[in-house]
Write a structure and sequence with these properties.
- The protein is mainly α and 56 residues long.
- Helix content is 70%, strand content 0%.
- It has 2 helices and no strands.
- It has helices at residues 7-16, 27-55.
- The longest helix has 29 residues, at 27-55.
- It is elongated, with a radius of gyration of 14 Å.
- The termini are far apart.
Length: 56
């Protein structure tokens, strides 16, 4: 699924999908969850310095 939204909404979606990262999930589900979490965390971290720079 592709969702264009603010990071807060993505974090909410990630929290709702937390069972996909649990031990009862299949390997593919855990991998998809991990990739989504990594992309979200990398995007948020890289966006923060840019936002600080533009506000100065």
């Amino acid at each position: 699924m592709h969702v264009t939204a603010l990071p807060d909404l993505h974090h909410t979606l990630l929290a709702a999908a937390a069972t996909l990262g649990a031990n009862g999930a299949s390997l593919a589900e855990r991998k998809a969850y991990r990739i989504y979490a990594d992309r979200l965390n990398n995007t948020v971290v890289s966006a923060v310095p840019w936002q600080k720079t533009s506000n100065q």
